[in-house]
Amino acid sequence: MAKITKLDDIVSLCKRRGFIFQSSEIYGGLASCYDYGPLGVELKSNVRKAWWKSVVQMRDDVVGVDCSILMHPLVWKASGHADKFADLIAECKKCNVRTRVDHLAENAEEHTEHISLDIAEAAEYDLSNKVCPGCGKIGQFTEPMPFKLMFETQMGANVDDSMMLYLRPETAQGIFVNFRNVLDSTRVKIPFGIAQIGKSFRNEVTTKAFIFRTREFEQAELEFFCQPGTDDDWWHTWKDLRFQWYIDLGIKKENLRLRDHAGDELAHYAKACVDVEYKFPFGSGDWQELEGIANRTDYDLRQHQRGMRTLNKWYETKGDLTKIDLSDEAEDYEKGPLSYFDEEQKKRFIPYVIEPSAGIDRSTLAFLVDAYDEEEVKGQKRNLLRFHPALAPIKAAVFPLVKKDGLPEIAQNICNDFKKYFNCFYDQKGAVGRRYRRQDEAGTPYCLTVDGQTKEDGTVTVRERDSMEQERISTDKLLGYLREKLDI
RNA sequence: GCGGGUGUAGCUUAAUGGUAAAGCUCCAGCCUUCCAAGCUGGUCAUGCGGGUUCGAUUCCCGCCACCCGCUCCA
After folding, report:
1. What's the farthest any 2 CA atoms get from each other in chain A?
2. pLDDT in tens, A245-270
3. Where does A427-477 show beta strands of DSSP type E?
4. What distance in Å separates the CA atoms of residue A162 and residue A190, rounded to the nearest whole number?
5. Does the structure show a pLDDT above 70 at A12?
6. Among A101-105, A152-156, A177-181, A336-340, whose mean pLDDT is lowest?
7. Chain A 324-383, CB < 7 Å to strand B
8. What separation in angstroms does the CA of A107 have from each of A94, A103, A104, A113, A130?
9. pTM for the whole structure
10. Which of A96, A282, A323, A410 has the highest Cβ tally under 10 A?
């Protein structure tokens, strides 16, 4: 179906149609950063809305939040990011394979915990007799290079008195630290979820093709809190729900799959994880992750209880995270400040968390690529985007068949009326066939054409994008007709 | 970060050590009563910086960005 076979085709399509541009392009671009254009911003916004509708609006057991990107530094100490997001890496000069220095130093085969960057730098590793795991050469390493995977910034305009902060590397922690607030303010009862959509920042060592791995990106995350023991069931439930969401919005089944993570692939906090993957039709044809659904257990809430106990040390060291060890967990941590009291069971516990975490930018691109199609119509090539109506940037376009006889005024009025309900586009330029095709390229589901007959019987032609079929609809029934077809 | 490749108009391509060409798109107008028709006119380009040269888009160097592969992937 889709004739896109190279990433270049997608980049070109995105730019040509105003979906995605390179950031700061007139200055030569900025690596890994992209901007959404006029159609792209609508598409992405619709992806967000569809996610929010499915995960929050349509459910009784999920509420939303919108947290700040800047958070207390201890958040990232507690979550593990401050320590585990910093690595010292050396590269083999012979085979260019990069390896974490602590792995080399310990000659460790198995997974080891990350260590703090300052400690790693201070250790002054001697790599002269270490073996490259890539090619077996000995001592052919570059100087160790430190990598900080979180962006740093400072708060406070006075440089001498400012505080280093991180840009959040995930939205999830904002939800965990608001767990208590939501419990206290909304009468939710476990099982329930808290959802958030927002930007996150990760200083990736390597970015990847187009917008698949960027350093600034948008996440849609749900933290679904449940009683321990019910977590496996809820994990399966969300896995199915989230997979179906993509299908319901028009992703072709053959391009979507679920892939379970192997045990050694799991993050330090996760008990289980499955990825929703999309088969992008270019490059090596690799399946790319759109979303991960993880069982994060009670790790995060327990860590934040430790973080709360660490606050005094934080003040004592004047906020130097590297001088702080997270305080030990309380003996009765299950009754701690982030615990949940179950009224029916008269029991306190730390909830388990199921986390569906979706990449908004990645799925936006997947919807775009999956909708792209080319077909032959009367010997002419027709390019179109077969967006699901909920995702289409423009829902309907209104044309006068010709630019005279009062038809433009009638068409303009219809368009203005409909703008109250959805994105509606007016166009009177050139042949009507060309206007239809232009809307096909933008993925607009319906075109309405006002002609001479409209003045006689008040009907207009409704032309459907995918089939190109037309039917005449009375203008007074038009809004209802479209809202039913568009499901809005 | 390594290796390889690429960079000319919005897009696709052309050409050249000496005025950068075309098609499509786009814009204005004419004509047009249902699927990219036609006519007229118009806007828009050698990624950035340096070097060689009388003259560089072309040759050389550096930078930036993108693509492929390696690597990374919480």
Report:
1. 91
2. 999 999 999 999 999 988 777 777 78
3. 446-450, 459-464, 470-474
4. 40
5. yes
6. A101-105
7. 377-378, 380-383
8. 18, 6, 5, 14, 8
9. 0.90
10. A410
Listed by start position, the domains of chain A span 38-84+149-366, 86-148, 394-486
pLDDT in tens, A367-394: 998 998 888 887 778 889 999 999 999 9
Statement: A394-486 belongs to CATH 3.50.50.60:
no
Tell me if ipTM is over 0.95: no
pLDDT tops 90 at residue A65: yes
Q: Are strands A272-279 and A256-260 parallel, antiparallel or unpaired?
A: antiparallel
Q: A38-84+149-366 maps to which CATH number?
A: 3.30.930.10
At A410, list the tokens: 């009638």
- Short-list A200, A193, A222, CA closest to A292: A222
CB atoms within 10 A of CB A305: 22
Residues 45-74 (A) near nucleic chain B, CB < 7 A: none
A389-429 tens-digit pLDDT:
999 999 999 999 998 889 999 999 999 999 999 999 999 98
- Assess whether A140 (CB) lies less than 7 A from strand B: no
A477 touches strand B (CB under 7 A): no
Mean pLDDT of A78-103: 66
Q: Within 10 A of A456 (CB to CB), how many other CB atoms are there? A: 8
Q: Residue A28 CB closer than 7 angstroms to strand B?
A: yes
Site of tokens 């089944």: A253
What's the token pair of residue A398? 């209104």
